[in-house]
Amino acid sequence: MSRVALVTGGTRGIGAAISVALKDAGYQVIANYAGNDEKAKAFAEETGIQVRRWDVSDYQACADGIAEVEATVGPVEVLVNNAGITRDAMFHKMTPQQWNEVIGTNLTGVFNMTHSVWSGMRDRNFGRVITISSINGQKGQMGQANYSAAKAGDLGFTKALAQEGAAKGITVNAVCPGYIATEMVLAVPEKVLNERIIPQIPVGRLGQPEEIARIVVFLASDEAGFITGSTISANGGQFFV
Ligand code: NDP
C-alpha cells in the first residue's frame, strides 16, 4: 500500500508541482486548497489527484480535514506545509489584518496542520513534515515584515520539532525557495522581472516549481531519514545562509 501524502495549497503553483511529483513517485496524494474551486477542479481532472478544501488557518477545519482523509484514504505519513499568502505593505502602512492573515496562514497554519497529523505519526513511528518557507524568511524583505516573520517562524518551528520527532522516526525539514515562476511571480511586469529581479539571481533565471518539488520528494523518501531540522535553499545563488 503506498504512503499517503497531503500537500496544503497543493492545487496551484509550487504546491501543484509537489502534488504531481509525489504522485509520480508513487504516493497517494491529497491536495488541499483554500477556496479556488475552479482551479482545484481542473487540477483534479487533469491529474487524477484528490482535492480537499479547507482553510489551514482554522484549527478545527484542519483537525476535521485530516480526520476525514485518514478515515477515507489512510494515515497521513507525509505532510507538506506549502499553503502560503502575501499581504505586502511597508510596515508603516501595514494593517493588523495584513499581519494577522499572513501569520495565520503561513505560520499558524503550519502549527494547525502539523498538530493534526503529529500524534498519528508518533504512534506509527514514521513521518515526514516538510514546510515550504522562503528566502525572505532567511534574509528578510522590505514590504514583507509579516511574511518574513512568518517564514522565519517556520524555520524555528522546524528546528524545534525535528528534535521532538527524531526518536519517533519523524523528520521535520524546510525548503526555502527563491523566485519561482508561479502565477504570483509571473504577474510581476516583464520589465521589472527582467531589469530588477532576474539580475539579482546569479544563475540568471527564475526557478521552476518542479525544482522545488524534486527536493520535497527526496525529503519525503526513506533515504532521507538522516536529514532532519534542515533548511534546504533553492534560490539560484541569490542568498547563502
Ligand atoms: P500560489 O499563490 O500559486 O498558490 C497558493 C496555494 O495555497 C493555493 O493552492 C491556495 O489555494 C493555497 N492556500 C492559500 N491560502 C490557504 C489557506 N488559508 N488554506 C489552504 N490553502 C491555502 O503560491 P505559490 O505556489 O507561489 O507558493 C507556494 C508556497 O511557496 C507558499 O508558501 C509561498 O510562500 C512559498 N514561496 C513561493 C515563492 C515563489 O516565488 N512563488 C518563493 C518562496 C516561497 P486556492 O487556490 O484555493 O487559493
Offer a few descriptive terms.
Rossmann fold; 9 helices; Acetoacetyl-CoA_reductase; SDR; oxidoreductase
Largest sheet: 7 strands, parallel
Number of domains: 1
> What multimeric state do the chains show?
single chain
Mean pLDDT metric: 97
Task: Tell me the structural class.
Answer: alpha/beta
Poorly predicted regions: none
Name of the CATH class: Alpha Beta
Order of helices and strands: EHEHEHEHEHHEHHHE
Secondary structure tally, helices: 9
Find the count of extended strands (DSSP E, 2+ residues): 7
Helix content, binned percent: 40-55%
Q: How far apart are the termini?
A: 39 Å
Read across the widest sheet, the strand sequence of neighbours is 3-2-1-4-5-6-7
Q: Tell the overall outline.
A: globular
CATH superfamily: NAD(P)-binding Rossmann-like Domain
Q: Strand share of the residues?
A: 15-25%
Find the CATH topology.
Rossmann fold
What small molecules are bound in this structure? Answer: NADPH dihydro-nicotinamide-adenine-dinucleotide phosphate
Round the Cα radius of gyration to an integer and report it.
17 Å
Q: What is the architecture at the second tier of CATH?
A: 3-Layer(aba) Sandwich
How would you portray this structure in words?
The protein is of the alpha/beta class and 241 residues long. It has a single domain, classed as NAD(P)-binding Rossmann-like Domain (Rossmann fold). It contains nine helices and seven strands, in the order βαβαβαβαβααβαααβ. It has helices at residues 13-24, 37-47, 59-72, 96-124, 135-139, 145-165, 183-186, 190-197, 209-220; strands at residues 4-7, 28-33, 50-53, 76-81, 127-132, 170-177, 231-234. Strands 3-2-1-4-5-6-7 form a seven-stranded parallel sheet, sandwiched between helices. α1 (13-24) packs across α9 and α3 (59-72) runs parallel beside α4. The model has no long low-confidence stretch (mean pLDDT 97). NADPH dihydro-nicotinamide-adenine-dinucleotide phosphate binds at residues 8-9, 11-15, 32-36, 39, 55-57, 82-85, 105, 109, 132, 134, 177, 179-180, 182-185.
